[in-house]
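Lab notebook: predicted structure, single chain.

Context: the supervisor wants predicted structures on file for every construct in the current expression panel, including those that have not yet been purified. This is the next one on the list. No modifications to the sequence; it matches the entry in the shared construct table.
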Amino acid sequence: MTPSLGLYLHWPYCARICPYCDFNVYKSRASHDDLVDAILADMGHWRELTGKRPLASIHFGGGTPSLLKPAQLEHLIARAEDLWGLEAGIEIGLEANPDDQAAFAGLAAAGANRLSLGVQSFDDAALKALGRAHDGDGARAAIKAAQAAFPRVSFDMIYALEGQGLDDWRGELSEAIDYGTEHLSLYQLTIEPGTAFAKRVERGALIPPGEDLAADLYALTQELCAKAGLEAYEISNHARGVSAQSVHNRLYWTGGDWIGVGPGAHGRLGSASGGGRLATEARARPEAYRAGVTETGRGHGAPEILSADAEAAERILMGLRITDGLDRAALRAATGRDIDIGAAERYARQGLLTLTPDRVALTPEARVYGDRMANELVPD
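Prediction complete. Output recorded below exactly as produced.
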């Protein structure tokens, strides 16, 4: 059976750059029709690599893809349908900022059916510290506008902010849950190297919560979401049942195939048992991406063929993020490799893993240490 195929389109422009963001983004509110044209052309190159495989998901990420005009979005979706075809019930996701809520109805009419909204907080002071353009009331209005326009709505919140205590987060998360959306993405603030926040931490101008408080905030997140019926199906993602989970993100976490177009986008195709998993990374700067498409017909440089070891490491690191865990049988079939069984058995004895011959998963208590533990399960 041919595995599902996803399409990721990266729109790199934002109206402003948030100080915690380390994504490939650039400040602009222009329409950038030339970049849309380059992405359309790049999609044609990818069709030659994949063959005719219907898409299970399309995801517009960024950056701020809600800055796209509805006509641009509609054109990109139509091109994808022409090239690959769309599976019945395809998920077409779009990331958006609350201050673009006036465009929501048009973007939904253009074909997006799942909106992921960057709320981040309802607290005005916190939003200002995070560099967001909206305030708390704007966030609330945007959620309601999204729910009116889209059949599926998720929104993001960030916790473990400077000065934030358990009661502060309890209040914010409770308000978020009360909107009744099918999905919440709840991220602990991470200080990424090279960001404005990282520089503030270095100067002592920003002091995020310590590890103990961060762990307590994570535990509170799990408690409140579980009581509300929002299952934690991934370390940072909660959904009201399987049908509400992100189809596109599960491709990443389960080692699926996806196409990556747009500046800085990554793509993955195939597996080591089939001759090597193809890894691509598009040129990061928009002008370099456009030039690459013009000169070579594609936005990425020479594809990399991942070694079996590199592919196994990727699959382990991603697979341990989901609560149903890593499919060891699929890992062995794809790469001929397995987890570090010694490390896994040690963690299982400590109650941090559930381990069977064909699957390994983090226990709820261990998920807060997920990335660290996954690294230790990668075999030498």
